[in-house]
Amino acid sequence: MKKLLTIFILIGVMIFPMQIHADSFQDQCSSSESTQLRETYNLIVSSYGLQGTITPPLDDLSALSVSDYHQPGELVYAVKNIDHVRVSLYRYFASFAVRYSDGTLAYNTLPNASEQFELLPLWIDRTNDKVYCQSDNQYYLLQFDKLKGYKFSDEPQEPEQALFPYGLSIQESFDGATFEPVEMEMVDVAKFTRDDGKVIFQEVFEADLSTSCRYLKIQIEQFPTIEYIDISGISGVNEIDVSDATMVADVTCTGPQHDQYPDGGAGLPEGITEETDEEEETKQEKSSSSSSSSSTKSSAAGSEETTTIERSSSSETTTTDSNNTSTSTSYTTNQYYFILSDENSEVMQEVFEQMGIENITKEDSDTAEDTSDGDEQDTVVSVSSDVTAAAVSGQTQTLYSDAQNGNNSSNDILLYYIIFGISLLIVLRVISLVRMPRRRPSDQEDDL
Q1: What value, to the nearest 5°, has the Cα angle with vertex 101 and ends 96 and 102?
Q2: Residue 404: predicted pLDDT
Q3: How many whole angstroms from its chain centre is CA 298?
Q4: Looking at the structure, do residues 49 and 111 belong to the same domain, yes or no?
């Protein structure tokens, strides 16, 4: 009973500190609470921005709005196996400018499809929060005129400091400490009108991510001030006092699609061809003739060199050409042997069965005798894991395969189980050593 209690405590301690990453998912942004997979900063649940009657009706009425306009709002996700993100925003102040065919600039409007126009991005000076639009290599300042409404300055104005893209930033990271922005594209924009006359813009952006991305940051901002021009022409600076001026409504992340393998698993990287069953059998027959073999061949066309190494049912193939571009494919089957006593073996077997591991086999007594140095007959438990790795042009990618359900995270789970098993073995071994009877001094004297 004490052993089982120790095992479950050890498993709990090992599980909870593990970093969890999410595969393909959709965040409808209905809560501002941080979770194990998502952290939020400077975001609150929208309470005003989407109220009232909206025409045409909005399908999604849940969103998170930027709380303090002097700071950006952020969503940080722990992700894995994703390569594409789609972000939907609601704004009372658009993040784009409209330029008509005659060169005229306009703001906070979306013309009809029958008109000729283009959308231009905005730029912000973070030292004074001034927003500009670049047109024909000239910068025009965003203003609010008491008579004309929102507009850009009539004459070009040179920014005082460096400008940064305004509105949305999508960033990726591999360690969670350093984030790099990725290129994004506005793929859709629509205009909605509330019953009080206010206009809401829906902006949809998409971006491609690296498949090795582990952390994703969605950063949205709202300029806090705007230059104000009164009726007499005197200018000043006014604070933006509109609640829920900028909102994030939806974040959807998707992973790579492998239509070539509908039953699960990942395809081969570009430049690596898939072997047929006959080629694989021929390769196995050649490799089985020797436990350790190597061969080298050269081709006159590009001085190509191929080396094959096999040890303990592992094979590795490396190809190098004159352009220093390498392509290697390795197929490895790792066997983990655990030496257990009969009592510990039964406990171990029960724990693994509760974990749902079925590929645990007991070797015959001959294998046990070869791997055991003690007089007591032990049980050998073998756990095997197959990992397929491929590298193309010096960049390594790991391909996860699951023959049962195609779940890309199955290998990680199996690796966790192996770590659990090794830790359990250590605990069991310590317990057995503690409980081992020690010889008293009197016994040693009797032996003498």
Answers
A1: 110
A2: 38
A3: 41
A4: no
Residue type, 200: I
Taking each helix axis as running N to C, give the angle between helix 410-435 and helix 2-15, from 0 to 180 degrees, rounded to the nearest 10: 140
Give me the domain span that covers residue 182.
Answer: 22-88+167-257
Q: What is the rounded distance in angstroms from the CA atom of residue 47 to the CA atom of residue 74?
A: 18
For residues 309 and 347, state if they share a domain. Answer: yes
The tokens for 45 are: 């649940």
143, 162, 181: which is the final residue of a domain?
Answer: 162
Q: Is the pTM of this model over 0.85?
A: no
SS3 state at 433 = helix
Residue 222, burial from CB neighbour count under 10 angstroms (0-12, 13-18, 19+) = buried
Structure tokens at 211: 């498949």
- pLDDT for res 330: 45
Structural tokens at position 316 = 């590795």
CA distance 198 to 194: 5
CB 153 within 8 A of CB 60: no
Task: Give the pLDDT of residue 249.
Answer: 96
Structurally, the chain folds into a number of domains equal to: 3
Q: Please indicate, yes or no, whether residues 428 and 312 belong to a single structural domain of this protein.
A: yes
- CA angle at 358 for the pair 287 and 400, rounded to the nearest 5°: 55
Over the chain (448 residues), the average pLDDT of each successive run of 10 is 51 47 84 92 92 90 95 96 96 97 95 93 96 96 94 94 96 94 96 93 97 95 95 90 94 74 40 47 51 40 38 42 45 47 62 58 47 44 37 34 42 72 82 67 53
